[in-house]
Amino acid sequence: MPAPALPSQVVAALRCSVCASPVQLTDRTLHCPQRHTFDLARQGYVNLLHARIPAGTADTAPMVEARAAFLASGAYAPLADAIASAAGPCSGLIIDAGAGPGYYLAHVLSKAPSAIGLALDVSAVALRRAARAHPRLGAAVWNLWEPWPVADGVASVVLDVFSPRNAAEYHRVLAPGGRLVVASPLPGHLAELGDLVLAVDARKDERLSTTLGSHFVRESTREIVSTVPFTATQVHDVVAMGPTGFHLDRDHRRERLATTPGGPVTLAVAVSVWRRKDF
To answer: Distance between CA 245 and CA 23 in Å, rounded?
Structure first.
């Protein structure tokens, strides 16, 4: 059966990606006054893209499968709890930029019964899962580096979990006083996996401040650091779901990954809260 249609609050927040006009939902089609139309997929998401994206940009089906399996294992549950705590007792619209299969956004919505979620991601494969991750969640395919098909000032919270950061668009879509919650890896994150994963730049937090500082003020940072026993399956999935998933056929990574055993792995992630500057 087709997934439920987009929540009405999500439809009200979306804009036509061709002409930026407000949209309406009739049956399972979004349309604007200029007669641009976008059909909802059977899984419930809507694809608003009207241009091809570069290869290696959107998560592939195997990457999404690995991510869904890894997150379902509960290995990142403490991170999901920290993100929900940082979002606070929020209401209104929560936008997850780079939502993937919707795991973190669904977790935040489960703690915020009066909130509605909008999952944005460039991967339609990922949003097939996100659209069904929570009944108060709508999903739209979009390239986050482009101006978003979202109205000004409609969000109370924006989430960014291991995703590219478009500070100007975060600022534009957030309401005055709105919060940005960012989860980013710390040096040492997954370090035991060596070159099977990308190393974390020691100056990552400095670059984060540079990227966001023109539009936001950092309010707080919480570090989640622990050593977790990973099974061999979890090791495979955490590697295959990340950026290295695009390059498993290089440097014999696939073969090495198939024989990598489980063991203790360091999880080191910073969850920071940023307040929107009102210029």
So the answer is: 36
| C-alpha–C-alpha distance, residues 169 and 187, integer Å | 27
Query: 């957030």: which residue's tokens?
Result: 174
Asked whether residue 63 is assigned to any structural domain, the reply reads: yes
CATH number at residue 221: 3.40.50.150
The kind and range of the H/E element at 205 are helix 204-212
Rounded CA separation 27/40 (Å):
9
H or E element in which residue 76 lies: none
51-90 residue pLDDT tens? 777 766 789 999 999 999 999 999 999 999 999 999 988 8
- Whether this prediction's pTM lies above 0.85 is answered by yes
Residue 229: CB partners within 8 Å, gap ≥ 6?
Answer: 262, 263, 264, 265
Closest CA to 99 of 62, 152, 59: 59
Give dist(CA 187, CA 136) in Å, integer. 35
Residue 1 lies inside a defined structural domain of this protein: no
User: For 170-215, what is each residue's pLDDT tens digit?
Assistant: 999 999 999 999 999 999 999 999 988 888 888 889 999 999 999 9
Domain annotation covers residue 150: yes
Q: Partners of 96 in the beta sheet?
A: 119, 159
Q: Which of 226, 179, 221 is nearest to 204 (CA)?
A: 221
CA distance 138 to 116: 8
In whole angstroms, what is the distance from residue 79 CA to residue 48 CA? 30
- In total, how many domains does the chain have? 1
CA distance 168 to 173: 9
140: helix, strand or coil: strand
Q: What residue numbers bound the domain in which 220 lies? A: 8-276
